């Protein structure tokens, strides 16, 4: 596989570095192109990839589209015709939109990664266009899975993914900050409070993923009768935290649908 990266910013770099670390691709088979030559040079230095001076110059059979959505149309118009796969991580662009703009012979997969991919802990979903094959889906899963979790879903669910894992890191950053604020109020120094809060969130998430147990069951395991945890949970319920998170995800998903016209 020869991978051509269109848009050499943080997300493109994270995906390529992850794929190289996992052995999914060799750096000599990767080239990058960016409207800003400095970005392409930084990408090449970080990954060992080569730099192309134009999109046709990428000479790839798999293209990774990492531009901003408003730059995608001009990038796609520069793709050469022929048997190739386009994997798009440009937010909100549907497979129909992409397929209407790629040259003949180019198949399409749409992805929704999130920013923790930058530290190898991403949560991504992808969906296939009409002409994409099972082998194409495996390529996308391998690339996205090299920097975290990757799942294939119907395109109709991509807005829900945007509301959950796309926007979700920001929601959890607020949780971490608020938990640390509570600890500071209780007497902990700020630096230690932030570290303990972040590690607590990381540990709880790992427990859910590694044990396969329902979060409610894990919650019950640390909730003693009349203890500190149930007292804290009662406060969360009193202030509607559960409902607030449900509304945050569904509102973000609705906004994603509005922006993408779906």
Describe this structure in words.
An eight-stranded mixed sheet has the order 3-2-1-4-5-6-7-8. It starts with a strand and ends with a helix. The mean pLDDT is 95. Helix 1 packs across helix 5, helix 6 (158-166) crosses helix 11 (241-260) and helix 7 (168-185) packs across helix 8. With 262 residues, it is α/β, with parallel strands linked by helices. The chain folds into two domains: 3-158, Rossmann fold, CATH 3.40.50; 166-260, ProC C-terminal domain-like (ProC C-terminal domain-like fold). It is built from eleven helices and eight strands. Helix 2 links the parallel strand 2 (30-33) and strand 3. Keywords: Amino-acid biosynthesis, Cytoplasm, NADP, Oxidoreductase, Proline biosynthesis. It is found in: Cytoplasm. Its EC number is 1.5.1.2. Residues 2-92 form the Pyrroline-5-carboxylate reductase catalytic N-terminal domain. This is Pyrroline-5-carboxylate reductase.
- Please write the CATH class name of the largest domain: Alpha Beta
Strands side by side in the biggest sheet: 3-2-1-4-5-6-7-8
Q: Determine the CATH superfamily of the largest domain.
A: NAD(P)-binding Rossmann-like Domain
The total of helices stands at 11
Oligomer: single chain
What structural class do the secondary elements suggest?
A: alpha/beta
* CATH architectural designation of the largest domain: 3-Layer(aba) Sandwich
Unreliable segments (pLDDT under 50, ≥5 consecutive)?
none
Q: Percent helix among the residues?
A: 40-55%
Summed up, the domain count is 2
Cα radius of gyration in angstroms: 21 Å
The average pLDDT value, as a whole number, equals: 95
Label the overall shape: elongated
Distance between the termini: 33 Å
- Number of DSSP-assigned strands: 8
Q: Could you give a short account of the major beta sheet?
A: 8 strands, mixed
Q: Could you give the order of the helices and strands?
A: EHEHEEHEHEEHEHHHHHH
* CATH fold name of the largest domain: Rossmann fold
What fraction of the residues are assigned to beta strands by DSSP?
A: 5-15%
């Amino acid at each position: 596989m020869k991978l051509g990266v269109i848009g050499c910013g943080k997300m493109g770099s994270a995906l390529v570095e992850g794929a190289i670390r996992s052995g999914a691709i060799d750096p000599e088979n990767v080239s990058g192109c960016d409207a800003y030559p400095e970005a392409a040079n930084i990408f090449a230095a970080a990954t060992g990839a080569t730099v192309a001076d134009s999109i046709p110059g990428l000479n790839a059979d798999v293209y990774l589209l990492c531009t901003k959505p408003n730059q995608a149309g001009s990038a796609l118009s520069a793709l050469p015709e022929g048997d190739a796969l386009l994997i798009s991580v440009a937010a909100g662009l549907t497979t129909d939109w992409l397929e209407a703009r790629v040259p003949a012979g180019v198949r399409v997969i749409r992805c929704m990664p999130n920013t923790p991919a930058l530290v190898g802990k991403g949560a991504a979903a992808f969906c296939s266009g009409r002409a994409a094959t099972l082998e194409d889906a495996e390529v996308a899963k391998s690339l996205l899975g090299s920097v975290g979790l990757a799942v294939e879903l119907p395109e109709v669910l991509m807005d829900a993914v945007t509301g959950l894992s796309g926007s979700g890191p920001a929601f959890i950053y607020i949780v971490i900050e608020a938990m640390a604020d509570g600890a500071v109020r209780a007497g902990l120094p700020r630096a230690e409070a932030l570290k303990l809060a972040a590690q607590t969130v990381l540990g709880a998430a790992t427990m859910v993923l590694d044990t396969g147990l329902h979060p409610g069951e894990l919650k019950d395991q640390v909730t003693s009768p009349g203890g500190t945890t149930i007292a804290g949970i009662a406060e969360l319920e009193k202030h509607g935290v559960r409902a607030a998170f449900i509304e945050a995800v569904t509102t973000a998903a609705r906004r994603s649908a509005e922006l993408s016209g779906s």
